[in-house]
Each structure stands twice: as C-alpha cells, then as structure tokens.
Amino acid sequence: MRAADSAERHGRGTLRRVLALPLVLSLTVLMPAFVALQPGAGLRDQVYWLQLVLTVYAGARLSAMILGRHRKLLQGTFWLFVYMAMGIAALAQVVVGKTPVPVAGSRSDLDLAVALVLVACVAFDAGAMLVRPGARPTARTVFRPAMVSRRRLAVLIAVAFVGSGLFVLKLGGLSVFFASRMEINESIASSGLSSPGSQASTAILRGFGTVPALLALMVVTRWLITSPRARRRPLPWIALVALIGLNAIVNNPISNPRYWFLTVLLALLFTVFPQSPAMYRAALSLGVAAAVLIFPFADKFRYDDANSRTTETSSVLDPLVLKDYDQMAMFANTITYADAGNGHTYGRQLAGSVLFFVPRSVWTDKPKDTGVMVSEWMAATNTNRSSPLWAELWLDFGPFGMVAGFGLIGWASARVDRRYAHAVARPGPASILTLAVPLVAGYSFILLRGPLLQASGRVAIGIMCLALITTLRPERWRQLR
Fold this sequence. Notes:
Elements: H1 2-36, H2 46-67, H3 73-96, H4 107-129, E1 147-148, H5 150-170, H6 181-191, H7 200-226, H8 228-231, H9 234-250, H10 258-272, H11 277-293, H12 318-322, H13 327-342, H14 348-354, H15 370-377, H16 389-425, H17 432-449, H18 452-469, E2 470-471
Antiparallel strand pairs: 1-2
Helix pairs in contact: 1-2, 1-3, 2-3, 2-4, 2-11, 3-11, 3-17, 4-13, 4-16, 5-7, 5-9, 7-9, 7-10, 7-18, 10-17, 13-15, 13-16, 14-18, 16-17, 17-18
C-alpha cells in the first residue's frame, strides 16, 4: 500500500513538473503579451504598466495555486477571479481604450484604482503567508468537528422542497424557469414581491428557493460517495434523484444569473471530487478559458427571442471590453464618487448588507447597493453594475481599511483551506466544513464581484441551512453513516 501511494505521489509530482513551465509561461507571459500587443487606441501610460504588473502578478499566483501540492479552494478561486476580472479583462480595456461603463473621473482615479487592487492583492498574500501551509492542528487547536445530523438532513430536504415549491408557485409555474431571466424578473415584479425601493422580499424568496435545494443535493451526493451503507439503501438514492430534478428547475442556467450557476457548478464539482488534484487543477485552468470564450456569451438566456441581443465582435478583445468585466472601471468610479464630496461611509454600506432583510419601510435611510448608488450618481441609464469587494471596502473603510481587510481575508482563506484539506482526508461522510468550503469557493465570484447587498441574501440563508444540519454531538447514531 505504501509503495502504491509513493508511486502515485511520484506520478503527481512528475506531472506537476511537466505542466509547470508551459502553464506559468501561458498565464504570466503569453496571455498578457497577447492582450498587450493587440491594436487599440488606449494610452500606454502609468495605468497600462500598473495593469500589466497586476496581471502578471495574478497570473503567477494563479499558477502557484494550480501547481501547488495542496488544494486551496478559497485562495485558488480568489486568484482566478483577480486574474480574469481585474487582470486580463482590465488590461484589454486599457489596450483598446474602452470600458463596459464610462469612467466618470480623471485618468488618475483609474490609476489609483489599479494601484490599490495591486496593493490589496499583496496584502492578501501576506495574510495567507501567516498560516503555515503544512502544519497540522495540534491537540490544543482541534475542536470537536461539526458533522451533518442525520435527522436534520431530512428537515433540510423538506425545507428545500417547500422553499423551491413556493418559489415556483409564486412566479406562476414551471414554464417561467425555462423561458428567460427577463421573464423571471417580470414574474417577480408582477407578483408584488419587489418594489422600486426594496428588494428584501425578492432576495429572501430567491434564497430559499435555490440555496436549500443546492445544499441538500451536495449533502446527499457526498453521503452516497463516502458511505457504502448509504449506497445499499434505496432512500438516499430516491432523495438524490428528487433533488437533481428540483435543482434542474430552480438552479438551471436559463433562469439564474451566470455567476450563481457558476457557483452551482463549482460547488458540486468540489463536492464530488474533493481530493482529486486533476479536477482541482482542471477547474482553475479551464476557468481561464471559460472566462474568455464562454462567460461573455453565456447571457443568451437573459433575454427572450423578441428582446435577444446579438453579440457583434470586431476584435478578439471585444468580449472583455464590451460586456461583463466592469469591476476596475466601477472601482475607479467609486473613488471619484467619494472624492466628489460624498466621502467614506465608515461601515454603513457593510451594515446595509448584513441587515439586508430589514425593509426600507422600517429603515428609511437604508443604504442602496454600492453599484446602484454610484451609477445613479453618474446619471447612468443602467444602474445594474458591479461593485467589487475592493470598492466596497475602500468606500467603507478607506485605503488602509481596505488593505487590512484583504490581509484578514487572505489569512482566513489560507486557514480554512488548510483545515479543509485535513477534513476531506478523513474517511466517512462529509463534515460541515467539506460542504461549506466548496459552496463558499463557488460563491466567492459573486462576493468578489459585488455588490455585497445583492449577495447577502443567499449568504445568510446558506449559513442558516448549514446551522440547521450541524451537530457537535459525538454519538455516531446522530451523524450520517
């Protein structure tokens, strides 16, 4: 057995060495150079060079995540987002001289935005370095592992079907979920759940209609993978088939935003293959290609046939310039918004995100989405814009608070990644950690893109569902077996 394990580790090490040079060259040299050398009207000024440095740095860190010995889900997805949204896409916009949303301020605001993103990424790395990657928890630091309660799993499955059923009924039936996102939004508006001033009811309904269904599917899937006893019983298989059907309705790519469907895919992938280095590396590597080739065109289901929009491209960089990747430009606009006299909010925006469920009829001056607030200040026609986490933290806490926040996020991500690696190595059914980390890793794209207020509903409901099925009691009969 030891000889077989040693041979397997040797094979994985050889594969990493074979892949290392072409992967590092592709992410840090070839792809940035390909974008930088494209023709365009953009200026080759300080913004350009800072953006190029940020892209190369993020590419090097993403390469390290892919080639590392340990699977780091939270750190890996962080660097994948940074490389594509804040790196390659933003570099393409500088080269072409176009952005998905107008930059309201001066060139110096965009310069500052790129510099702050770079500094925050260094702070993220510095925080992660404080956690020793190979250290195992000692007897003093080991807590009783949180496991899935067998009885409460049945409650979660019931909540999933009730919540998704109410979601379907409230929106007028199954057909709406296979039409377009436009029809979903129109159904929500006609149902009376949303109002121009408040989206709390919509967020809660969407959350309960989608999150419990996904989490229940993850638990049952992991249970069947890890438990021979469960595979010999019919009930878990019946639950699995029913939950797959339920998720095909409420979590399909037609009726959901692309970022949420990406969360579903990554969460299920890392749940089914938590210990597979090949799947982990493939997810991060193919994520780069998908972000360029698939993601910008994946909004086909946002519109129905009568309102469909055709994507016309005159340059290979157009998908990165004309559509989704407005994060760097919106960060620059947030800086301009604050400098124009609005100032920093000192935690007020974060409070609004945490207390998303409070209706505006009760909290009359409840903060708006940061992206909406900045877009309205710009007098933009389309206010459905992103507000990346860099902008959220900077607006709330200033540059020093933003850097400290990313240092803390880096430390927490590395610490959770280390504990996750030890948890998935244990035999037996999944612990709460092995379910929560894949879910957070997939959802991190939404959290990093922002606005936080829009993302808060599903976060809160996910925490509630995890708390519902958690047991700290050591008796084996209470846990999944």
